[in-house]
């Protein structure tokens, strides 16, 4: 057996009672400190953050962006006191970003506002250090490691789609580069020490008012106007090389210089970043599929076997995917001798097979390969339908449709148990489900649930069960199938991650798509819970009959509430120092937080403030490991 036996941790805090305040709530003995809020200068080139929204687009190039999401702590020299915190900036709150919200003048967005919005998106690399006597963290201003990637930063396209006819643009006639990364939601990491940033809701930033080809329509390219109407700034006297025009991907005749149709095909990928090399370019790994990537989790690496990466496609009735590398894992690649982490990324992430999941009612499942020879349900091959591998990847969703993949209740993050390799997937909610299936067994699933499976990268098969159903505590047993109580009722699970000790952390996001309209969200703000799960393989009985109530008890009975967010905010992103003494999470889209004049995240502001998404560092007052 590959399962290693590590000591099982014990949670060392009592479940928090419900709270709905404009402050973070942590258990007794803990503190929570604001770190790197939107607009925090990374270099002296940025003016300090202004509470009137008056910072410029150029300031935003040198500060943290908005709406923090996935993240990871990369230690410097193994340190738990100094490292690189890489943080995604998923989207923007235009009302908070500008002094008086976004403007439209004669139907056009001003170029400076659009540039500011573009620069508020992307990814930050923040050099952080804990040098205060009490262990508090600060951003190291002007560190050469500090970096911003925005929705305009030049990135490399790599893998099967790179160089293909799908991605040749006036900016990159060879199809090997693209400007920007967009709507970076969750993240992943690789065994060689790089960061994967997931492009999620990028499609709606592009518009095509004409007839959309399948690869645009199936991902939700806007039909009337882009989400922020960036395309309306096209033609501004200051526009550089289609800087804004590229967001309109309509058919525009034969003029090659104005043909931006392919621009949207440069988005929808997992983006690999080497935080340790400030001179490196980010690389979009197209072999891992093109869809609304929520995040990415690497399966437990095993020497001599392929690597597997899991990624959910977060939209109602979309699928969950697995990428398996052609190359077999060589543990020496964890620390490449030449320091070239992105060359290792090329080895494992540019050549491999993408699969989509079918969950069967008997508790097993199959990974269906998105490759040219694979037969569709009507007997053709994907190659016959779409063409070569690049074409299939561009059409990832449409190809998965033809294979009988299981439509899920909004697949969000995945997490891999560090010892036994079980994979956990959050299914946040789906208030439009009427027809159920074994893995999504509740109609009008407003509370969401967590599915888990176990597979081997060399096999197409897996076994699965439902780990826990979200629910209000007072709901009837047919809904509250995991018998949640007031101490651990939750809804809309989203972020999910294991720490190295085997504690599973579950974060909720009731904030969009009318998500707050459920009984849990009306009783408690978004929250982070913790549990120490038993292995899927350790289950004596796998009860997956959707008619059954509580599917088990041992796994969820000790699910505890560890943290509560300020009003209207979701909790997302999870990182920790190697010694587990600091745990980082992100507060996204708060209503009136953080309070000004303090870094204490648990203080509610007495007056109205311009809200700022931020990282929160959670530590014990006595400096010992968090959670136990
Ligand atoms: Fe960006 Fe699916 O959350
Ligand atoms: Ca999310
Ligand atoms: Ca969200
Ligand atoms: Ca979400």
Automatic annotation (TrEMBL):
<protein>
    <submittedName>
        <fullName>dTDP-glucose 4,6-dehydratase</fullName>
    </submittedName>
</protein>
<dbReference type="InterPro" id="IPR006311">
    <property type="entry name" value="TAT_signal"/>
</dbReference>
<dbReference type="Pfam" id="PF05787">
    <property type="entry name" value="PhoX"/>
</dbReference>
<dbReference type="InterPro" id="IPR008557">
    <property type="entry name" value="PhoX"/>
</dbReference>
């Amino acid at each position: 057996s590959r399962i290693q036996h590590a000591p099982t941790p014990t949670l060392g805090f009592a479940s928090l009672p419900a709270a709905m305040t404009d402050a973070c709530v942590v258990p007794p003995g803990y503190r929570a400190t604001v770190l790197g809020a939107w607009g925090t200068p990374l270099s002296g080139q940025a003016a300090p953050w202004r509470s009137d929204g008056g910072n410029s687009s150029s300031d935003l190039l040198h500060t943290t962006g908005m709406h923090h999401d996935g993240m990871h702590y990369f230690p410097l020299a193994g340190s738990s006191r100094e490292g690189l915190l890489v943080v995604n900036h998923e989207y923007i709150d235009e009302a908070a970003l500008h002094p008086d919200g976004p403007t439209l003048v004669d139907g056009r967005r001003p170029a400076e506002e659009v540039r500011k919005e573009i620069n508020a998106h992307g990814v930050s690399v923040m050099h952080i250090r804990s040098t205060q006597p009490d262990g508090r963290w600060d951003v190291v201003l002007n560190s050469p490691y500090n970096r911003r990637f925005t929705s305009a930063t030049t990135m490399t396209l790599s893998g099967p789609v790179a160089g293909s006819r799908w991605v040749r643009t006036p900016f990159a006639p060879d199809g090997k580069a693209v400007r920007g990364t967009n709507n970076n939601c969750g993240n992943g990491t690789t065994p060689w020490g790089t960061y994967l940033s997931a492009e999620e809701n990028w499609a709606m930033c592009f518009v095509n008012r004409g007839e959309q080809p399948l690869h645009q329509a199936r991902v939700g390219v806007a039909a009337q106007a882009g989400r922020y109407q960036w395309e309306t700034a096209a033609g501004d006297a200051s526009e550089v090389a289609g800087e804004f025009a590229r967001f309109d991907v309509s058919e525009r005749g034969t003029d090659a210089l104005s043909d931006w149709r392919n621009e949207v095909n440069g988005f929808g990928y997992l983006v690999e970043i080497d935080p340790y090399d400030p001179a490196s370019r980010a690389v979009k790994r197209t072999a891992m599929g093109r869809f609304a990537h929520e995040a990415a989790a690497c399966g437990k690496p095993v020497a001599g076997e392929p690597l597997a990466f899991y990624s959910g496609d977060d939209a109602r009735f979309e699928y969950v995917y697995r990428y398996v590398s052609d190359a077999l894992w060589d543990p020496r690649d964890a620390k490449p001798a030449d320091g070239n982490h992105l060359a290792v990324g090329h080895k494992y992430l540019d050549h491999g097979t993408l699969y989509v999941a079918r969950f069967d009612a008997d508790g097993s499942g199959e990974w269906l390969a998105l490759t040219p020879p694979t037969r569709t349900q009507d007997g053709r091959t994907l190659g016959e339908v779409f063409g070569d591998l690049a074409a299939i990847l561009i059409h990832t969703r449409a190809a998965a449709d033809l294979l009988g993949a299981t439509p899920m209740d909004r697949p969000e993050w995945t997490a891999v148990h560090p010892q036994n390799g079980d994979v956990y997937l959050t299914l946040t909610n789906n208030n439009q489900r009427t027809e159920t299936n074994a893995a999504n067994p509740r109609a009008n699933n407003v509370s969401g649930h967590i599915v888990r499976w176990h597979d081997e990268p060399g096999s197409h098969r897996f076994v699965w069960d439902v780990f826990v159903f979200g629910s209000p505590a007072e709901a009837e047993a047919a809904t509250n199938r995991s018998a949640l109580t007031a101490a651990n009722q939750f809804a809309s699970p989203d972020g999910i991650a294991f720490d190295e000790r085997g504690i599973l952390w579950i974060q909720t996001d009731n904030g969009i798509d009318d998500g707050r309209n459920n009984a849990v969200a009306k009783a408690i703000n978004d929250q982070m819970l913790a549990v120490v799960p038993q292995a899927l393989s350790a289950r004596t009985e796998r009860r997956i009959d959707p008619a059954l109530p509580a599917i088990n008890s041992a796994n969820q009975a000790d699910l505890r509430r560890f943290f509560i967010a300020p009003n209207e905010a979701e909790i997302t992103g999870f990182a920790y120092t190697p010694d587990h003494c600091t745990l980082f999470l992100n507060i996204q889209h708060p209503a009136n937080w953080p309070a000004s004049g303090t870094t204490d995240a648990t203080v509610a502001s007495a007056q109205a403030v311009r809200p700022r998404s931020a990282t929160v560092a959670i530590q014990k007052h006595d400096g010992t490991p968090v959670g136990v």
